[in-house]
Amino acid sequence: MSEREVDIDHSSFPGLDEGSLSKLEKEIVTADVFGNEDEHEIKYKTLSWQLVSALMVAEIVSTGLLTLPNAIAIVGIVPSLILTIFLGVFALYTAKLLVDFKLNHPEVHNMGDAGYILFGPIGREIFAAGSIIFAIFGVGALILSGQQALSTLSNNGLCASVLLAIFAIATFLLALPRTFSRLSWLALVSAVFITLCGILAMVGAGANPVSGRVIQATVPSNFYEAFLAITGPVFAYAGHFVFFVLISEMRRPQDAMKAAWVLQGFATTFFAVFSVVVYVYIGSTVASPALFSLPPVWAKISFAFGMVNFLITGALYTHFAAKLLFVRFFRHTRHIHSHTILGWSTWVFLCFASVAVAFVLASAVPIFSYLTGITASLFASWYTYGVAGFFWLHDTFHLKGGMDAIKRRWLGTTLAVLTVLAGAFMCVAGTYVSIKLIADAYSEGLVGKPFTC
């Protein structure tokens, strides 16, 4: 276990001398992040693996689902389907590495803590900042999707900026509970509604197939177009960056892999079926998000169900961004577990700031696919895939016997190194593609102007 410096509230431990406090600090470093909660007012470790499954499904099976049929239109059914299934299995493998790392290091609460163990103080700041940015990008994509849903349902009856603000305010209010247990049942509702949204979209597409549509098993494309399609499924599976936070609030962290199996089994199957069915009935002209390619009535019905997921998932991402900073500020102080004025005022401010930044982002970049592409390339490539390889290499070296263990476990080492390289490739190539896409859009005057009424 790596040691780190921590600041504890010394006033919470009256009667202890400096030597005893120093020993206590060293014990806290490797302790469960929330410790023993029996006597606390606010209890975090209350989640079952079933509720974590619901939270994970609600978070991952969301707006990314709606980009997948468009990815098929770019590269064809066969490559896209292979990629969707492969990335789903790959995500299950990296989830296993992440869960093992968390169990080996119970003090890890988020990617920033993991970054500290791997790369020291600089790693902590980079990983933590990346997690917050990723979460805020996610909130931006979700409130933008909510605005699109409200615009569709109201026949553009209100200004887009007003609808965006309405959805942002609702997201902020829903994110305010301090523990994930308060949001877990909403997450179950969210998972049900996004599933119904996908089913209704498939029914709507099947009932109204596009005449003369073009359906192709494979589509000749250059590297730029092909990798642009990859960002769709990469974003769809993006969500591992919140696993540490969710596992930290489980009653039995040892059950976390059960939730990961439920998530990846459901997500991979649903993504594959949804993307193929919608593409087959709409063809190469399918939009991103796919609901825009449905007849108006079916688009409204599907958006009405999907909007529930966008709202709740946006609140989950907001909650995560706020929780990461909140725990960073107040870890091992009474403000974490007690109803203090400072604790609650800080929490409300962090939730508000997260949504406010996301609102500005969504207003400035009002094109759904650009948000998903840049987010997947910069962050999901590492948090969902690449960094898991570092987790395996670190723990094998430090906990299993150094370089001898690395050499002896050659298969695991090879897979871990390939995982790191895959994450690096997705990040570099995806970022290049996304920047080029945005640059082209700017040159054509398609983006860069905020919403106007």
UniProtKB/TrEMBL annotation:
GO CC, any one term: membrane
GO MF annotation terms: L-amino acid transmembrane transporter activity
Principal location listed in the UniProt entry: membrane
Superkingdom of origin: Eukaryota
Chain segments annotated as transmembrane: 72-93, 126-145, 157-176, 183-206, 226-247, 259-281, 301-320, 341-361, 367-393, 414-435
Amino acid transporter transmembrane domain sequence ranges: 46-435
One protein family per Pfam: Aa_trans
Family under the similarity heading: Belongs to the amino acid/polyamine transporter 2 family.
Name by which UniProt lists this protein: Amino acid transporter
Organism, scientific name: Polyporus arcularius HHB13444
